[in-house]
Amino acid sequence: MKPILRISDLSTRFFTKSGQVNAVESLSMSIDDGEVFGIVGESGSGKSVTARSLIRLIESPGKITAGKIEYRNAEVADEIEDSNPEAVDGDYVDLAALPEDVVRSLRGPSFSMIFQDPESSFNPTLTVGEQIAEAVEVQRRASSNPRSVKSRTSSSAYSLRSYAYGTIMPNRSYVSSESKDRAVELLQQVGIPDPEERVDEYPHEYSGGMLQRAMIAQALAGEPDILVADEPTTALDVTIQAQVLNLLRDIQEETGMTILLITHNLGVIARMCDRVGVMYAGEIVERGTLSNIFDEAVHPYTKGLLGSIPDIGSAGGRLQPIEGNVPSLMDEEMGNRCYFADRCPKAMKTCLEKPADLSVDGAKEHEVQCVLAKEEYDESDALDPGQFEGEDS
Ligand SMILES: Nc1ncnc2c1ncn2[C@@H]1O[C@H](COP(=O)(O)OP(=O)(O)OP(=O)(O)O)[C@@H](O)[C@H]1O
Ligand code: NI
Q1: Mutation test of ligand 1: which of 11, 13, 14, 115 has the most ligand atoms closer than 8 Å to its C-beta?
Q2: What is the set of domains in the chain, with CATH numbers?
Q3: Which intervals hold domain ABC transporter (predicted)?
Q4: Could you report the predicted ipTM of this complex, rounded to two decimals?
C-alpha cells in the first residue's frame, strides 16, 4: 500500500533574535493510510513543530526551509496539477510546495488538527454548535464539488479569523439546519450529554473535558483523511483522558481515518498506535512497530524513555527525565555528532560523527539512528566522560 503521507528531509527552523533554532532537522517518515502513528519524545524535541509543519501551520519567525510533505489524494492532485505542476507527482501533492490558499482549502476535508488547549480552537463569541456546523458546511461544499479546490473554502459566509489554529473560525453565524443537526450528532458521538441543548451553548459554558471533546467533534466534522492530534489529552484528568483516547480509537476504527498522535506519554502510545517514531533534538532517532519499540529498542535514548516510565498506562505516565539536558537546538551549538552522545551511557568515539539511519537486521520497519544497530558497544572505545564538559549551559 502506498503511504498517505510521505515526508522527506523536512527541516523547520526559527530565525529568532538570539539565533537560528533547528527545530526539525532533515526528518523523513511515512504514514500509512488508516494507521495511528505516534511521535514520542521529551519536551523540546520538536514534536509539535513537526506536527504543525505537516499542515503548514508554522508562523514567523519559523519557516520550513527544506523537504517535501507529500499527501496522497488523486482528486486533489488532479485538480491542482494545472496551476501547480511542480507540487504534483502522480497521486501525491507536496504540501510544502503549495501556495498558502490551496493549503488552507485542504484544512478540514483533508486534514485537521486537535490541540492540548481547546480554547484556542473556538471563537468565544459563537456557540459551539455554530462552529461545528460551519466545519460541516466546509466539508459539504468540498464533497459536492470535489473538483474545485476553491469550493472548499467559502469567502462570503465567513472569513478565517485565525486559521493559525488549523480550524475554521467563523466570525458570523451562517449555518443550515442540516449542518446544525449534524453538529448535534457529532456532539452526541463524542459523548456530550444533552447535545440538543449543548449545541447552543458557548465555549465558556463547557468544562475542559467537554470542550476537548467538542474540539474533536469539530475536527471530525470535516471528515478529514488525516487527523493530527498534539497532546490531545494531556490537560485532562485521568478518567476523561482515557475516555477521550477510547473515543479517538473508536472513531478511527469506524472511519479508517489516519491519525498522527503526538505525546510524551509512552502509555498513550502503547494503547493507541500502530507504529511509533521516537524524536530527539529535531530528528526521529528510532522508529518501528510497537513491538520494535517496546520490546526490541536499540537506541539508548528509547531505552532511557522506556526506563523512565513510572507505570505504563497509568495516569501519571509522564516521562521522568533522563539524566542530562535536552540539547539546545540553536544552530551554532549543534555540531555534527549524535546529539544524544553527551547523555548516552554507551557513547563511543564514532558517535562524534553523525550516525546514519540504520535498519535493524531482520526487522523490516525498524530503523535506528545509532551505530548500536550494527555494532556492539565496545568499552575500550568509550567516549571520555569529560568530552562535552563546558558545552552545557
Ligand atoms: N515560535 C517559536 N520561536 C522560536 N523557537 C520555537 C518556536 N516554537 C518552537 N520553537 C523551538 O522549537 C523546538 C521544538 O519545540 P516543540 O514545541 O516542537 O517541542 P515539543 O517536542 O513539542 O515539546 P513539548 O513536549 O514541550 O510540547 C524548541 O527548541 C522550541 O523552543
Ligand atoms: Ni509540543
Answers
A1: 14
A2: 102-264 (3.40.50.300), 278-381 (no CATH)
A3: 5-306
A4: 0.99
